[in-house]
Design goal:
It is a single chain. Helix 5 links the parallel strand 1 and strand 2. This protein has twelve helices and twelve strands. The longest helix has 17 residues. The chain has a six-stranded parallel β-sheet, sandwiched between helices. A six-stranded mixed β-sheet has the order 7-6-8-9-10-12, sandwiched between helices. By secondary structure, the chain is an alpha/beta fold.
Length: 330
Amino acid sequence: MATMKDVARLAGVSTSTVSHVINNDRFVSEAIRQKVEEAVKTLNYAPSALARSLKLNQTHTIGMLITASSNPFYSELVRGVERSCFERGYSLVLCNTEGDEHRMNRNLETLLQKRVDGLLLLCTETHQPSPEIINRYPTIPTVMMDWAPFEGQSDVIQDNSLLGGEMATQHLIDNGYTRIACIAGPQDKTPARLRLEGYRQAMAQAGLAILPGYEIIGDFEFQGGFSAMSELLTLEERPDAVFMGNDAMAVGAYHALYQAGLRVPQDMAVIGYDDIELARYMTPPLTTIHQPKDELGELAVDVLIHRMGQPDLAQQRLLLTPELVVRSSV
């Protein structure tokens, strides 16, 4: 394999000149540049990204830890992050934790050993990154996405899930529904807890009772929504509307209602959360709370790059505002 020295020898220039041509970081005459480029082509020389990163102490790589699932929200969020990284000249290395703490910490160690310039973390509070590992790499900037931070100075970007849960429930109330249930997400996730709390606040402010069995804790997955809705349908006093903790569970809930011979919204209104792409193609199209996934991904990358350039900045906590998207399921 050809080296930079081989290129310099063939072109009759110094290795530093070859470096300037390849990195385009200093003026080199057109004649010299052409000699170097011809030598590179002749020798089929490929610059070493590792050597460059060691020299510059930068890899232009961002690592991301995520607990992925069948929930389309995560793939849509990652798509926004990857696009933002590409537009800013960075590569994204994605590691899926599968909700396993050991796997998460091993992936975290691997990313840090590979000298990523920064980290994006989207996990759960019950499985948090090991402080010991983080402390071994104290200079790595980190941004938490959509969940509460562990003890540290990481920047945090979250959806205002409390407001979103309240908005969703209030929309049902404003449309005349009184027996409103909530199928919430797993309570080890801050957004799920806050969406449930928003539901409770809206019900209390409207003077509406939450009947026994009207709160069910789901898992943010399709099957979880199906199972929870099936459970609601066994109640003696069935709800006339349901706030789903996310759109993935709403998909499962639709299927349970279909199997029971019930129609949305004639027999039961359904409102979701996240506004995944699938929501607009459901039958009927799902009314939901829009969580700005592209904005969340873009903002996370921008905050991280800003932090990498100015590591001494005070910790930032940014809250994104959800929006109601009215379709036909209410």
